[in-house]
Amino acid sequence: SWATRRISKYETFAGIPYLLKTSRDVLNSLCDPQHGLLRMKSSTTSDEQRAMVVWWSEQWEAMGAAFKNYEQWAIGSDTSFMTEVCRDIMEYSDALFDQYSVLASALDGAASSSLSKLDRSEQSQNSRTNLLEYPRKATEYLVRWLRLRDTYLLSILVNLLCKILRRLGEFDME
């Protein structure tokens, strides 16, 4: 978490490959279909909910920093290494967004049973909208990548953008 914030704040490249590996491990630990903590746990505490939202926001801030600075980082760097890092960034971002519904469901499941069905529905919509705000901000820099010439990266990019835009449309977000 501290390292993620530092990478996002200072927009440095050196930690990105390590961040991607560590973040993917955390994502798998939380959301793995068979053994993920969020899939196995029936409810979460308010502290766990806050931690999930902070983690999610920090991940997207780091991805936003990567999307924003990648071209600058690539100047004068080994092309094959930077292509691999670019693929890792795109694949991780795609995998991260794929778990949006798992995080949203974990936050929904924590809604107080003392709330009316309408209040729980409103709370659920608010938490989902809040979660979507972070990838929405990152798309500002992600669209710059549409100039890529690598068809594999473009396919992941277009797929990710479509998923994000579809979700944003569900909640009338721009």
Entry summary:
The protein contains 8 helices and no strands.
Kindly describe this structure:
The chain is an all-alpha fold. Helix content is 77%, strand content 0%. The protein has helices at residues 2-10, 16-31, 37-40, 46-74, 79-98, 100-109, 117-142, 151-170. The longest helix has 29 residues, at 46-74.
Describe the structure using short key phrases:
8 helices, globular, mainly alpha, single chain, 174 residues
Whole-number average pLDDT? 88
Distance between the termini: 28 Å
Largest sheet: none
Instruction: Give the helix/strand class.
Output: mainly alpha
What's the total count of β strands? 0
Principal-axes shape call: globular
Question: Which helices and strands appear, and what pairs or packs with what?
Answer:
Blueprint: H1 2-10, H2 16-31, H3 37-40, H4 46-74, H5 79-98, H6 100-109, H7 117-142, H8 151-170
